Amino acid sequence: MNSYILKRLLLIIPTLLGIMTINFFIVQIAPGGPVEQAIAQYQGIEGGNSSRIASGTNSEIKSTSGDSQYRGAQGVDPEYIAALEKLYGFDKPIVERYFSMLWRYAKFDFGDSFYRNEKVTQLIIDKMPVSISLGLWTTLLAYLISIPLGIKKATSHGSRFDIWTSTIVTVAYAVPAFIIAIMLIVLFAGGSYYDWFPLRGLVSDNFDSLSLWGQIKDYFWHLALPISASVLASFATLTMLTKNSFLDEIHKQYVITARAKGCSQNRILYGHIFRNAMLLVLAGLPAALIGIFFTGSMLIEVIFSLDGLGLLSFESVINRDYPVIFASLYIFTLVGLVLKLISDVTYTLIDPRITFEGR
């Protein structure tokens, strides 16, 4: 097992390098980079935050006829463009920028955001509480709902309960999370019916002045709708996986033998079947958690104006904030690869019969 873990850890390096390389060159050669956006903002084509640009150069826009590699740069002073390139690091060749990024990222030095005047690491740390809140509670609730429901569906396979719950699960799986989120807002957040829950934010403005119990209630009051939307969109697959795992185990020989020996139904279900059936479900917990943290919550954060990692990544892509984009990709990929390895190790912890030594 130790040799397998070591091989997987060594494979993380080329996998991470390949992902970063492909994305770096695709993003770098794509039009609409930060220099072009800065030129457009100063020409009044589109709005945006130009405070850093203004502080980074005092060059004035002058009418010239020089050619430029940047779209929309006609009539802009070449010295101004050169100052922008230096500000954003585009005065160096792309290969030099690539190797410089790899060297800094190997030391976990992600630099500064182009538009927020903050360290990228500090930005990610500041946004983590929102994403952790959504991911943690969504995952816990999804497992707490899906596992009992899947077991009940397996033990009553073919009954009216199984048919009706399968219909509900299928509909929940078919409807995207953002549609569910919009429906919840319309119904319960002052849309067209009830105004029971807040529309945006993780806590209220007076959160610091509340008592401990008041802060806990306020926190979950704000999370109620986002978590509900995430859970409704994510528990369907887990429910059906649990049901099918239990159905597969129920018809095996050791269960028939246990019944022949006179074991009770609960003893058979939770003493014999549960551990084998839950192997696939529990081993996928780390991967499910990372998926909810860094992918599934983006649209939910945007809709409910929750300032987390999903919203940060979305705004960074829109603004071409390359340091934040690449740092987020690097961190999420690295954590995802490590958690995939943890998922494999979890298999062996749950069922010692599984081994990766032969791989």
TrEMBL record:
Keyword Membrane assigned: yes
Entry superkingdom: Bacteria
Regions annotated as coiled coil: none
Bilayer topology term: Multi-pass membrane protein
Location of the protein in the cell: Cell membrane
Pfam families associated with the record: BPD_transp_1
Keyword field contains Transmembrane: yes
UniProt keyword list: Cell membrane, Membrane, Transmembrane, Transmembrane helix, Transport
Sequence segments annotated as region (Disordered): 51-70
Amino acid composition bias (Polar residues), ranges on this chain: 51-68
SUPFAM superfamilies: MetI-like (SSF161098)
Segments traversing the membrane: 9-30, 130-151, 163-189, 219-242, 277-304, 324-343
UniProt domain ABC transmembrane type-1: residue ranges: 128-343
Alphabetical list of NCBIfam families matching this protein: PRK15133.1
Family indicated by similarity: Belongs to the binding-protein-dependent transport system permease family.
Protein name in UniProt: ABC transporter permease
The species this protein was found in: Psychromonas marina
